[in-house]
Amino acid sequence: MDSKQVAKVVLLDGEYNFLILATDNNPQFEGHWDLPGGHVMINENIVDGLIREVWEETGLIIVNPEELYAKGTTTFFAADLPSGKIKLSSEHKEHKLISLDQLDDYKISDKFKEAIRRAHE
Q1: CB-based contacts of 17, cutoff 8 Å, min separation 6
Q2: pTM over 0.90, yes/no
Q3: Which of 38, 94, 97, 98 has the lowest CB atom count within 10 Å?
Q4: pLDDT in tens, 29-44
Q5: Secondary structure string (H, E, C) spanning 26-94
């Protein structure tokens, strides 16, 4: 069962950031670019929950995520984009790598933009 705690990760490929596009399954997020991650289960370690969520959403296994900061119920991490075949879940329909200069060209929430910028500090 999901807790209120959310873990999200900025996946870095050099100067580029990995984003996934939400499907229209959830009208609230339709057309928005997302960071991989999601709700941690009750009694689940936050890093374990992050690794599980990223795998479920992308088919990628992240290693050594570094905690950036927490804001409200969300904890943001940074990690290197792992190699491997990307298999998106039904929650997302597209993925891409974008640079910091391109952040404002995409529909990305301010809280995700902040996390991406902090990951590059």
Answers
A1: 10, 11, 97, 98, 99, 100, 116, 119
A2: yes
A3: 94
A4: 778 899 999 999 999 9
A5: CCCCCCCEECCEEEEECCCCHHHHHHHHHHHHHCCCCCCCEEEEEECCEEEEEEECCCCCCCCCCCEEE
